[in-house]
Amino acid sequence: MEIAVFAKERKNAQGRPFWGYISRLTNKKTGEIETLSVRFRQSAGQPDPEKCPMNIVIEKGDANIAETRYTREDTGEEAVSKSLWVNKWKEGSKYVDHSMDDYF
User: Fold this and answer.
1) Band of pLDDT at residue 104, cut at 50, 70 and 90
2) CA–CA separation, 1 vs 64, rounded Å?
3) What predicted TM-score, i.e. pTM, was given to this entire model?
4) What contacts 93, CB < 8 A, 6 or more positions away?
5) How far is 94 from 75, CA to CA, in rounded Å?
6) CA R_g for the chain
7) Which of 81, 83, 87, 101 could join 37 via S-S bond, C-beta 3.0 to 4.6 A?
8) What is the mean pLDDT of residues 53-74?
9) CA distances (Å), origin 25, targets 5, 28, 92
C-alpha cells in the first residue's frame, strides 16, 4: 500500500526536538478516514523530514496498527490514539498536493 506521510518538528516533555510523522488511512469496514501517528522501527529508519510530505510504500506484513486509550485532560473524555508502526518501507511515487484543486 502507498500512503502519504507528513512530518512535523515537535518537542518532547524535556523540550528536546524530534520529528513526528502522521498519515491518513481509510478504514475499509467503516469508510472513515482516520489520522494516525506513523512510527518507524529503528531498523526501518525514518523518511527524511525535509522530503516530506512524501509517499511511501508499505507491505501489509511490514506494519501494524496499535491503539492507545487515554483520558483527555481538558474534557475528561476517553479517547483513542492510533499509531501505524512500520517495520520496513520504501519510497513511493512523487507526492502531488491536490488540496487546492477545487479552488483554482
Assistant:
1) confident
2) 13
3) 0.84
4) 2, 55
5) 40
6) 15
7) 83
8) 95
9) 11, 9, 16
Cell of 75: 474534557
pLDDT tens digits for 14-41? 999 999 999 999 999 999 999 999 999 9
- Give the HSE-up count for residue 90: Cα atoms under 13 Å, Cβ half-sphere: 4
- Residue 5: name the closest of 39, 41, 43, 52 by CA: 52
Helix (H, G, I), strand (E, B) or coil at 100: coil
Secondary structure, 3-state, 61-83:
HHEEEEEEEEECCCCCCEEEEEE
Q: Which CATH number fits domain 2-91: 2.40.50, 1.20.950, 2.40.30, 1.10.760?
A: 2.40.50
- SS3 for 29-48 is CCCCEEEEEEEECCCCCCCC
Residue 70 scores a pLDDT above 90: yes
